[in-house]
Structures are given as structure tokens and as C-alpha cells.
């Protein structure tokens, strides 16, 4: 039984002959007629698409980060209270920057206390409130 399709080669060349060979070389199926592969330069792709690395921390490290963030947010809110009065709610020009790392690097609580008192000299609240804030901050800094 013969099929009628020939895939033989003529005269030692590598060009196939027959019905199938002709169809494959010259005609594309309608489904594949619109397909086109376009290779682009890799540097162009890198410029277009930047990837960012997101660090993943362990549970213990995330706990320390949350604790530090809670202390910093508390510090920010308390400083706002110390430097605003009912008359100056919308007009706060005094800026105080308390660096927690700098406090932790100091040798003892007395040195930290003196440093904070000099930083907070312009506070709008009473000295009692300032001393309470300093004591609370030193307590919270010990937990970090």
C-alpha cells in the first residue's frame, strides 16, 4: 500500500522532494501565519524592566523591627506634645531630632539624661513633663 507522499532526496542534495516538502517550505497554516518571533537585545530588556529585591526577615528580626518602630512612633508623638500648646497647634517651628542610636551608644543614663535635657531646652511644656518624657524614653530605650 502506497501513501502517495514522497520524502526522498534527489541527486545527493539535501533538498527534500515531494508533496509534503513543498507544502512545508512555501506555505504556512492560517493559524500560524500571524506568528513572528522577535529577538531583542538583552540590554534593552534590562533597561525596560527593573527588578527589586525584597528582604525577608525572620520572626525574631521582625519582632525587633516592630519594637523599634513602636518606640520611634511613641517618641514622635511625645515630641509633638512637648512642643505644641493650644495656641500653636498649627504653627510648630521648633524642630528637635532625638537620635535613639546616639542615646544607646552613650555610656550611662546620666549622660543620656543630660544630653536629652540640652536637646529639649526649648520645649513648650513644663519641666515636670520634660523630665517625665526623658524618664519614659530612657525606659523604652533599654528595651531595644
From TrEMBL:
Q: Which GO terms describe its cellular component?
A: cytoplasm
Matching entries from PANTHER family are given as: GEO07393P1 (PTHR16188:SF14), PROTEIN PHOSPHATASE 1 INHIBITOR POTENTIATED BY PROTEIN KINASE C (PTHR16188)
Q: Which keywords does the record carry?
A: Phosphoprotein, Protein phosphatase inhibitor
Record's Pfam families?
PP1_inhibitor (PF05361)
The organism's superkingdom is given as Eukaryota
Name of protein: Protein phosphatase 1 regulatory subunit 14B
Q: Which family does it belong to?
A: Belongs to the PP1 inhibitor family.
Per the UniProt record, the source organism is Photinus pyralis (Common eastern firefly)
Amino acid at each position: 500500500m502506497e501513501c502517495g507522499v514522497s520524502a526522498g532526496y534527489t541527486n545527493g542534495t539535501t533538498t527534500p522532494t515531494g508533496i509534503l516538502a513543498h507544502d512545508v517550505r512555501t506555505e504556512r497554516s492560517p493559524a500560524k501565519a500571524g506568528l513572528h518571533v522577535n529577538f531583542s537585545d538583552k540590554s534593552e530588556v534590562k533597561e525596560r524592566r527593573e527588578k527589586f529585591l525584597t528582604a525577608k526577615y525572620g520572626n525574631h528580626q521582625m519582632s525587633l523591627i516592630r519594637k523599634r518602630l513602636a518606640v520611634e512612633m511613641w517618641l514622635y508623638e511625645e515630641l509633638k506634645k512637648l512642643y505644641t500648646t493650644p495656641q500653636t497647634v498649627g504653627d510648630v517651628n521648633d524642630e528637635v531630632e532625638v537620635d535613639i542610636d546616639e542615646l544607646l551608644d552613650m555610656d550611662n543614663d546620666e549622660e543620656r539624661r543630660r544630653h536629652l535635657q540640652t536637646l529639649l531646652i526649648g520645649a513648650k511644656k513644663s519641666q515636670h513633663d520634660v523630665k517625665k518624657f526623658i524618664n519614659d524614653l530612657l525606659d523604652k530605650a533599654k528595651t531595644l
